[in-house]
Design a protein that fits this description.
Elements (H helix, E strand, L loop, with lengths): L4 H19 L13 H13 L1 H19 L5 H18 L7 H31 L11 H27 L13
């Protein structure tokens, strides 16, 4: 049952990653784009250990993000969990030792994460407007948000994954991690 140190340290790493992303992520901003540290950790963990535990890590990491960032509670969890479902295909269906698999998984995971988070925020905004809870009516510009936030985040996160691929490939596969979602 040797799962490796990352398996057991993932929850504390997610807490630290969420704290870093919420408090100090601006220090790593490139052209105004911050890294999604928790998303990167969850996708790396899912590629290494599978979708079931990846969903747990996504839920916990999302709660940490929402607590530290002040977003709607559960929105980051839902977005991370949808990205984890995409990443779970990279665990078994494709070999994570092929460098294109982690990069494609990160790009698709970031897109799914961004779209899901955008849909959740739009839904919350609609509910707030319907219940007359918002003080300043606003509408989220979907196309502008996609072009200015989601696509640059996808490029940034995929570049981070490119740096992490050599380390990802050094973690040996264990028989108990060969399971699907």
């Amino acid at each position: 049952m040797s799962r490796g140190w990352l398996y057991y340290l993932m929850v504390p790493l997610l807490a630290l990653g969420a704290l870093f992303q919420s408090a100090a992520g601006n220090r790593l901003a490139v052209a105004g784009v911050k890294p999604d540290v928790v998303l990167v950790l969850v996708i790396v963990g899912t590629l290494l250990y599978g979708g079931r535990i990846g969903l747990f890590w996504a839920f916990v990491g999302g709660l940490f993000l929402d607590i530290f960032s002040g977003g709607p509670l559960g929105s980051s969890s839902l977005a991370l969990m949808t990205a984890t479902v995409v990443a779970a295909f990279g665990h078994n269906t494709f070999s994570r030792f092929n460098p294109l698999v982690p990069l494609t998984t990160m790009a698709l995971g970031t897109l799914v994460y961004g779209f899901t988070y955008l849909v959740v925020l739009t839904a919350f905004s609609g509910v707030a407007a319907a219940l007359n809870l918002e003080t300043i009516p606003h509408q989220l510009p979907l196309e502008a948000t996609f072009l200015a936030v989601i696509l640059p985040s996808m490029a940034y996160n995929t570049t981070l994954m490119l740096v992490l691929v050599p380390f990802l490939n050094r973690v040996p596969e264990t028989p108990e991690t060969v399971s699907t979602l």
